[in-house]
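Can anyone check this?
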Amino acid sequence: MDKPLKNPPAYAIASVDHALRAASMLQLEGGLTVSQVAERLGVARSTAHRLLAMLVYRDFAVQDDDRVYRAGPVLELAAHSQSLVSRLRAAALPHLRRLVDTLDETANLTIRTGDTARFIVSVECEQALRVSSREGMVFPAHRTTAGLLLLAELDEEELTALYAAERYRDRPGERPDQVALRKDLARVRRSGFAVNQNRSERGLVAVGVPVRGPEGGVPAGVSVSMPGARYDSGRLQELVAMLRAAARGIEEDLAG
């Protein structure tokens, strides 16, 4: 039986449609300039520029030095198993919701792709002052709680290759200090958890633990994020215990 034709929604939002089409073009066709995107979408150049700027902000696109836009880390998900990401999301969501209900802080599940960490699930708390959802966003792995947890799983050879100087030839400022990074990862390995204070965002504190896969390895990290003003270091072990319980629940659901 033929699939029914897709009809546009009754209340279509043109700006959302334009952004989605621009993202699809970047993913399927490669690099495009602002003028090319504007022509394809039939919008003003200024409108195309604003759309692309938002895609860059949300990591759906990156801009080269020659002002050409290309697919960003979010659109490069194919490098990571789609089925695993889907399973992780489904397994984690109820446990993240329970964490939020208990702690009233935002909870996240994050994976690593190369030297970046990507938030694949984020559940916000209800407090007026809170860490907003990071779902879909990408950060340098060494600047996030879960990123540190996942980097700590790499051996010395893998870590050296990942942060080889030649990979950062065009962006030397993005390469982390290798001595400091190894000290951080050694601390994470000893403790079994990671604490992020002001690494990814000023005024933010996050605590996380690893989530182990049914066949070994650590495919993700689970964390809670909060404003630094609410963080109490005296509760760290309590937070870690709750996160470990959530991680075990995710692991059991993944195995099942």
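Reply from J.R.: I decoded it. The longest helix spans residues 82-103.
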